[in-house]
Amino acid sequence: MVVSAPSLRRLEAYEEYLKVKSLYWDEEKGEFVWLDTRLLPFEEVYRRTKDYNRVARAIKTLEIRGAPAIGVSAAYGMALAAIYSGAKTVEDLMRDLEKAYETLRNTRPTAYNLFWALDRVMNRARKEAEKGDADRVREAVLDEAGTIHVEDVESNIAIGRHGNKLIDNGDVILTHCNTGALATSGFGTALGIIRYAWYEGKKIRVITTETRPILQGARLNVWELKKEGIPFTLITDGMPGLVFMRGMADLAIVGADRIILTGHTANKIGTYMVALAAFDNDKPFYVAAPTSTIQKTYNPEDIVIEVRDPDEVRTVLGRYPLTLPDVDVFNPSFDITPPRYITGIVTEKGIAYPPYTKSLPRLLD
Ligand code: MRU
Fold first, then answer.
1. Catalytic residue from among 257, 280, 328, 335
2. Which of 100, 214, 255, 297 could disulfide-link 179, Cβ–Cβ 3.0 to 4.6 Å?
3. Is 302 a catalytic residue?
4. What string of pLDDT tens digits covers the 365 residues of the chain?
């Protein structure tokens, strides 16, 4: 089935930035396609589906991960639900879409882009449904998913452009978790800034943590940085303290799963300790994220922290035991960095500086 979205034509303008195809809509087959990040850096396997439940499973099991990639994929999940629903009436189609919306919402609780993207698609569907034509709702839902996809690419490039101003020739940049093409629609946020600076010819180096327990640094950053030819060093998550103390890194840049209007930032577990190490050694610590990651609340208690399967900590990627099978484990996937440790937040609309309670709402106007 050929299912095209006019919004996707806009992607053609950004080809030079999209060297890694992390996810896309196959217009000829009417399928959603993604690179399975669980198998990297050893195998490059693309998966495809017409079933939104499969997209939900891919998000839950981390085949697709990284807040922006999760949001875009969920939007395409809604498109699959709309296109392959057998509903003849608008009412039946909207019922199917509500069901898909709930399934996709219940995949990962911290990534704010997931809820933002699903609400955006659902609002567009509801608006189109008022006209009473089910096929027009189908087209609108796919078009909205395509628009979210293109905007994510545009945001990444703009974040790269703004963030590039923070990087000097010769800088060594420490990063934590993967925030590159594999975490977005194909360029990156924190890693997008690094990529942008590299494309601008700056002689930079990266220090990436391994990012336990899923090893997004050791597996995914290594894969992306090697592909770009950007020099890097891999360290374990306990090492940023010494690295900053010995002056081996000039700044840190990380991504975000959720930022609130106070500047509190939820990101991969271990981010808070990177921020503390940078702060204690007078080094800048930047967060990079699109404004779709910002939740309009002032209450840090509103940030839901995902707690995952203890076996992720007891084993290496489910393959090798690291400890005894029955040990008690705590496995939160994210932590929260308080705003006092954050030098600036780089978004597609510019860089927000403290006090964030003033600068972040201004960015969202
Ligand atoms: O558990 P993950 O791999 O989805 O966590 C990803 C992160 O913590 C990223 O830093 C964040 O989503 C930003 S990705 C541009």
1. 257
2. 255
3. no
4. 557 788 899 999 999 999 999 999 999 999 999 999 999 999 999 999 999 999 999 999 999 999 999 999 999 999 999 999 999 999 999 999 999 999 999 999 999 999 999 999 999 999 999 999 999 999 999 999 999 999 999 999 999 999 999 999 999 999 999 999 999 999 999 999 999 999 999 999 999 999 999 999 999 999 999 999 999 999 999 999 999 999 999 999 999 999 999 999 999 999 999 999 999 999 999 999 999 999 999 999 999 999 999 999 999 999 999 999 999 999 999 999 999 999 999 999 999 999 999 999 999 98
Instruction: Say how far apart CA 283 and CA 350 lie, in whole Å.
Output: 21
Please choose, from the candidates 127, 121, 162, the residue with its C-alpha nearest in 3D space to the C-alpha of residue 142. Answer: 121
Which one of 178, 272, 331 would you pick to mutate in the ligand 1 pocket, going by the greatest count of ligand atoms within 8 A of its CB?
A: 178
Is 166-364 in CATH node 3.40.50.10470?
Answer: yes
What tokens does 142 get? 């796919």
Work out whether strand 251-254 and strand 172-175 pair parallel, antiparallel, or are unpaired.
parallel
Is 177 a pocket residue for ligand 1 (Cβ < 6 Å)?
yes
* Cβ of 68 below 6 Å from ligand 1: yes
Cis peptide before 213 (omega within 30 of 0): yes
Calculate how far, in angstroms, residue 267's C-alpha sits from the geometric centre of ligand 1: 7
Q: Name which CATH class applies to 6-157.
A: mainly alpha
Q: Is 191 in the pocket of ligand 1 (CB under 6 A)?
A: no
Give domain limits for the chain: 6-157, 166-364
CB of 69 sitting under 6 A from ligand 1: no
The candidate with the shortest Cα–Cα distance to 33, out of 60, 12, 58, 10, is 58
